[in-house]
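G., the chain you wanted modeled:
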Amino acid sequence: MRPKPMLENGGVSYYSSTDDAALAWAMRYYGESYRAGVEYGAFIYQSEVPVNGSNVAGYYLGAAIKGEATSISNFWQTEDEINKLVAGWIHTHGNKGGKGDLVFSLRNKQGEAGDAYVTTWTSHDRKAYLDAHGLTDNSLAPGYLVNNNGTLLKASLEWKDRSMLDEIQGLLFTDTRYVTTVAQGIPR
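Predicted structure as tokens:
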């Protein structure tokens, strides 16, 4: 079940997709999260990497962040991760046992779209970051969740920007266009 990296370089594992990167992370951190009863999270980054003589997109994981029982309030990029291209993020819901721990959170405390996506800008110098990567303020990257049943879910961003979130909120958790199962049976 554990995906094989397409390239190992300088202690970093690069995967061929965000799904593979998320699954590798889930296999490493879900059990720890479940036993501790707290959430864990990490950013997934994209970089061009040399494979068989040509550059291809490779996906790798940022530092794992340990949160609290129901959130990761300290979820920010580390100093050496700033300005890297965010391709997604992954987090766990640990072992809390509530029905809400099986799905993405619909809304966070600020009334935003909860944990189903991440904005692709997380840099201190947002304008420079957006310009460098050809992104807009509304660019989004998918969120991944390992729920407390050991299922890895992906918020499939069929929509392209934040302006459509209110339109799809009611569909997000029951419509397979918006949430897909990447893997089941992640070991505790």
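Strands lie at 7-9, 12-14, 40-51, 54-61, 65-66, 85-92, 117-119, 140-146, 152-155, 179-183.

Shout if anything looks off.
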